[in-house]
Amino acid sequence: MPQHTPAPTQSQAPATQQAPKEAASAAGARAPDSRQAFQRYVKSLGGPEGGADTKPVHQALGPATRAGFVCRLLPIETAILRDPIEVMNIAHTRGLVSERGEAARPADPVTRAEAAVMLTRFARLTGVEPGERVLYFADVFPGAWFFQAAHACRLYGIFSGTTENRFEPHDDLAPEHVALVILRALSPRLTTTEEQRKAAGLTVSASTRPSDLDALLAQERLTHEQVARAREMIAQLPEKERPDKYRQLAAKVRYRNQRDNEGVKAAKDAKAYGYPEAGDVMCNVTSMAMALNQLGLGADEGDKQLEDQLDEQMIGSRYEQGGQANAAGQHGADVARVSTPAFRNGDAAREWFQKSVAPRLEAGASATMGIYWGPERSYAHIVRLEWVEADGVRVDDPYGSLYKNPKGTYVYDKNDPQNEVDAGAKGEDGLWSWDTVAGVMPSGRYVQFYTVK
After folding, report:
1. Which of 24, 54, 101, 221 lies 20 to 30 angstroms, CA to CA, from 189?
2. Global pTM?
3. Is the pLDDT of residue 303 over 80?
C-alpha cells in the first residue's frame, strides 16, 4: 500500500462556524464528579470504591475515556496512578489538555476532536491555518478550536475522516480506534516532504531541532519508538543530509538472535527438516524483525518476541515473499523483493549492490538478503542487510558469525541458543567483504526491501 500523502487540492471552506464543545467548560459549567464516576466504574468491575486497592486508571477506565486515552499516550507516567484526576493533571503539565482537575473531565468519553488535539500536541505537529492548501473536512469550520488539529491529523494520516468527507468531531472516538490513531501518531508516516509541509503551512517544531536527533543517535541502542522519532526528524532535514543519518540510525537497531526463538510454526518445520530447535529455521522472521525495527515498527509483546509473533502471522509459505509480506504488513510495512544476478566475483557484487541497493537504504528503506552457505552451499539463510559500505556489506546475522574454513566452505560460529543479550552477539555488525558476498551468492539470490506503508 503506498504511503498516504495529503491531497494538494484547494477547497473553499464554509464560512459558518460551529460552537466549540469545550465552550461550556470555559463558561463555568459544572463538570461531573470524575472521582465518583471512576469509583462507580471500578465497583461495576468488582473492585473496591476507593483507597489503596483501587485499580490503576489505565485498567479501570476504558481507552476511549479522556483519562484512559491519556494513559495510552503516556503509559510510563500513568502506569501506577489510581486517581483519574492525577492522570489529567499530568496531561495538563505535558500540554495535552488545557484544564486541570475535575474541569478536565477524566471519566468523560473522548471525542474525535479532543483526541485530534491531544495527538497533535503529543506529536508536536504544527497546525494548519484556514486558506492553506489542504482538503478540508466538510464539517470542520475555520475558527473551531480543533480546526488546526483536525486538518494536521488529516495531513499526516492519523485521521482520514468518515464518509462524505466528514470528520464528525463531536462523536465519541470508538474504543477500537484508540490504538490505531495513537500508533499512527507514533509512526514514521508522520514524515512528509518539505514541499508538502510548505504547501500545508507547516513548520518544523522546536521538538525537531538537530540537537535532538544527534542526542538520539549518540545512544548505543534505540527502541523502535525512538527509531520512529529519529526517522521523523531525519525526513525534515535537507535531502543531501539524510543518507548519513539513516546510516547512523541503521547501526542503532537492536540485534536479535534467532537461536533463542520459540516459534510454534517454525518448530514443526524444524522437526520436519531434522533440526533440534525452532530457532534453527527462524532466520527469515528474525531478520525481518530487525528490518521492521529499523523502520520504527514492531515490538515484543510481554515474553513473546517480535520474531515469534511474525512466525504466527505468516500465511502461506514462510520462506516466500508472499508469506513474509503478509506478516510484515500486519506491522505496517510494505515488502519488495529484488533478485540478484549470479556474481562472478567481488567486483561484480560491489557494482550491483552500490547501484541497486545503496540508494534505497540511503532513502530510508531497510533490507534483508538471502544467501547460501555450507558444503556445496546447500543451506539457505537470511540476514539483515544493515548498510552498503566501500569494502563490503554490513550485516546483522541472526545465526552467528559466518567464516570460510580451510576447505573453502562457508560455515558458522553459531550463537548460543540461550543468549538473549543484544550487544556482543556473534553475528552483530559483521562486515562481509565483496568476495564473501560473491561467495554466498554465486548463483543469485535476493534482497528484500521494507518500507513504511
Report:
1. 221
2. 0.55
3. no
